[in-house]
Amino acid sequence: MIKFCSFLKKSINFTILLSFLILAAMTAKSSSLPAMSLDSALGLAKKHNKLIMIDGYTDWCKWCKVMDKETFSDHKVIDFLNKNFIPSAFDMETGDGLKLSMKYLINAYPTVFFLNSNGRLVYKIVGYLKPDEFIAELNKCLKPENLMKLTGYSDDLNIGYPDFYKNSYGKSGKKVVAKPEQIEQWLDGQNDLFSEINFNILMKFALNKKYFEYFLNNEKRYKEMYSEQTVSDKIENSVYQLNSKAGKEGNEENHKFAISIVDKYFKDNDIKEKNTMKFRLNSDYWRMQSKADKLIEIGEQAIKEEINNKSENLNELAWNLCQMGTDKKVLEEALKIIEASLIENEGFENLDTKANILKKLDRKADALKCAQKAIEKAKTTGQKTEETQKLIEELKK
To answer: At 109, which helix (H) or strand (E)?
Structure first.
């Protein structure tokens, strides 16, 4: 994504806009949507009483390129955008795109987001979508009841972020990761942790236990000022970060604290989602402690419970047990877990895991059959099989 279509005229009709879109689709190496300054987009939004739709991309993002080729070049999408929005594209690591990234916490790509004529964020779509899926999201955006009302944000793009925050954005090779002590020192010196700047700092960086508890205790107010989904996502991500740190440090108390947050703050979520989160937290923590007995308990419980992506999660757990050594009892339990996974989905990864477990149990004939079956499965999905092929060669010796 190197070149943009320049698009800076102050007065323009939407027939011309469409022609620019089609030309861009044929010639641009970046987004197929027109590049323009934010001021120009805001001017058009005011003039035509429409929301600005921004394709937020980076030059290194694979799925941005896929979405540009398959979605933004689709004529149904082009027609829908021209009729209902002011379409534009911004490199989120430079210029106005960089400022918008810092203000609205755009950290995953592709992100398509929508601004009103004052420059306020009102809707956001994260991740690649096919044309029909994208149009369905655009229709949601046209309904006022679906738009966010972020009262905590100002209309100003140039607010006084601290250097460590600004330096954490920009081109990949030039970003500087903020040190935990910088973040803590800044927050310790603030009187208003609900300000736009401080909210963004709380959202952007991993929080220590002190500030995470503060965030949790003020969850409701943050949701009212900013975005319920954004705050919920932060809590979920922070739970995993806290648990990962606890695992590295062997801090079981903080691990239990992470589990308690799931019970307290995700009580309205469906039971499968809660079970899945607790499964992930427990399995990650005890894997880092190399506690096979704990992982076996987690696997036995997960087999009985409803969890999301059950087959994949059980497969990962069985694989971790397989990698822990050659203890026969542990491997036998790993085999039970992977067989439960195969009931859910007899896919290549699961069969490959079972073959490796059987090999360690010295059941070479069964392992060979299982590995060969895994290869056959992979032929229908196009998955890489180099390691499984090596396993087959070893088993034939």
So the answer is: none
Burial of 148 (0-12, 13-18, 19+ CB in 10 A): middle
Give the helix ranges, DSSP H, for 161-291: 163-166, 180-188, 196-204, 209-217, 219-225, 228-249, 252-265, 271-288
The candidate with the shortest Cα–Cα distance to 58, out of 86, 30, 21, 27, is 30
- For the chain, the distance separating the N- and C-terminal CA atoms, rounded to the nearest angstrom, is 50
Q: What is the pLDDT of residues 239-277, one digit of tens each?
A: 999 999 999 999 999 999 999 999 888 776 688 889 999
- DSSP alpha helices (H): ranges in the chain? 14-27, 38-48, 62-70, 75-84, 95-104, 131-141, 163-166, 180-188, 196-204, 209-217, 219-225, 228-249, 252-265, 271-288, 292-304, 310-322, 328-344, 348-360, 364-381, 386-396
Assigned CATH for 14-146: 3.40.30.10
The whole-number pLDDT of residue 48 equals 96
* Joined tokens for residue 360: 């360690």
Check if the beta carbon of residue 385 is closer than 8 Å to that of residue 373: no
Q: What is the pLDDT of residues 209-225, one digit of tens each?
A: 899 999 999 999 999 99
Across the beta sheet with 85-91, the strand order is: 85-91, 51-57, 111-115, 121-126
Name the 3-class secondary structure at 65: helix
Instruction: Reply yes or no on whether the pLDDT at 22 is more than 90.
Output: no
Over residues 351-356, mean pLDDT? 97
pLDDT in tens, 54-79: 999 999 999 999 999 999 999 999 99
Burial class (CB in 10 A: 0-12, 13-18, 19+), 352: buried
Q: Sign (positive/negative) of CA torsion 194, 197, 203, 206?
A: negative
The ranges assigned to domains in the chain are 14-146
Supply φ then ψ for residue 122, to 5 degrees. Answer: -125, -15
Output DSSP code: residue 57: E
288 half-sphere exposure, CB direction, 13 A CA radius: 16
